[in-house]
Amino acid sequence: MAPLVPSGTQVLAGLEMGGIPVVAALGRHTGLPCAFVRRQAKPYGTCRLAEGAEVAGRKVLVIEDVVTSGGQIVGTRRC
């Protein structure tokens, strides 16, 4: 999958739950930082939608394990 990562990508983002192991492996292989995106921010802890690498203002590649309607991927734009 590493050759499919667009040039200029600054962060890999995996959607919970299935995208997380894919992003972790790809991040280790490419050296890119990773972020893990929740469906909803938790009301406790950091209260963030994305954990890990900072995504604001960066070129982020969103990765999911299985895509059906694409709704979850579109929802990550809130980060």
Automatic annotation (TrEMBL):
GO terms for biological process: pyrimidine nucleobase biosynthetic process; UMP biosynthetic process. Transmembrane segments: none annotated. GO terms for molecular function: orotate phosphoribosyltransferase activity. Keywords: Pyrimidine biosynthesis. It comes from the Bacteria. Pathway: Pyrimidine metabolism; UMP biosynthesis via de novo pathway. CDD domains: PRTases_typeI. InterPro entries: PRTase-like (IPR029057), PRTase_dom (IPR000836). This is Uncharacterized protein. It comes from Streptomyces fodineus.
